Amino acid sequence: MTGPALAAGRSRTQIPPGTGTWLPTWDLITTKHLELRKRRGLMITVALLTVGPPVLILGLRLLFHAVDPASYGPAGTPSVFSALCNLMAEFGFIVAAVLGAAAGTTDLTEGVFRNLVITGRSRLALYLARIPAGLAILLSAVALAFAMVCLVTSYEGTPQPTSVGVYGVTVPEHLDQAGLRNWLLQHPRQAAAGLPLGPVTSAAQVRAAVDRNIASLYGDYTAAETGGSNPAINEMAKIGLWIELEAGIGFMVGLGLGSLTGQRTLTTIVMIALEIIVTPLLAAQEIPYFLDGQRLVVGVAMDQLRPAGLAAASGRPGGPGRVLFGGRGALGIPPMPTWAMISVIVGWIVGWSVIGAWRMMTRDA
Q1: For residue 63, is it within any domain?
Q2: What does the alpha-carbon distance between residue 253 and residue 256 come to, in Å, rounded to a whole number?
Q3: Do residue 286 and residue 223 come from a single domain?
Q4: CA distance 163 to 244
Q5: 163 SS3 class
Q6: What pLDDT score does 315 carry?
Q7: 311 confidence band (pLDDT: 50, 70, 90)
């Protein structure tokens, strides 16, 4: 072969500029995004588990209230808001895991992984391209669902109350612990009749019982205040970011585990078991000599980070106290330090990303 012909042959087989770099190109990301969107069954599942519950529940409540407002209250009550947000967090993690597992195993199941590798593209770039491609679909769907819940709560909800009902006792809103104590001491009859203070008859006994139980009483008061009031805009923003983080973690773990196992069904089953079975059991109560092990589960850390507007709906009023960004833990176990909680969340995201990328870089083509 002559020199010009050889040079022409080399130019035809030359890898395009940027193809071998570890950073994914925009074209690679959009291609993977299109591949995921073209899987109709997967997109229907994402829509049903993210947008479906708010549309169904709020749509029925709006319809019933419009037909018979005397029998059916407004659609956007605080309790409905909390319940829907917690439901979206649970379903969001599961659907994120399904989407991540699909993104991590599609090339293998369709038999195109070898074709992608022989083009000269970096395997790390092939893996990293799946992250923005999948998150663009997932986070958009979660944001749409949460926006609908916020709109209905804000414009079709109940008026903000001016008092808080605690054990049948009507207390003014927005009191701190000292303010609650002073109010109870100024109204000893109401406190003795409604609050769980034990057998008290005189004002002195009421004062002693209030001083002894003020911490738990204030926790119940703040939980009742949170559960009976529409969340403020800043609280809605915190809740929305928390739900997005929950979904993002589910996607990253599902993507890494799917890349490691190469099996979408197995990955989905493991992730559902983690969210529905393992996390609630470990977060419910302390296991002797295994507390630090319980805290290593990302769902336990996310429960501790749960915002104050959702902690009251978890069945554990008040939680262990403020943790981060105004959050209140929804745990039945002692909370971990804030730095440890952040380390667990970041560790799961980074750790599973590293595992998934390593498996793709070492997998036989």
Answers
A1: yes
A2: 5
A3: no
A4: 32
A5: strand
A6: 44
A7: low
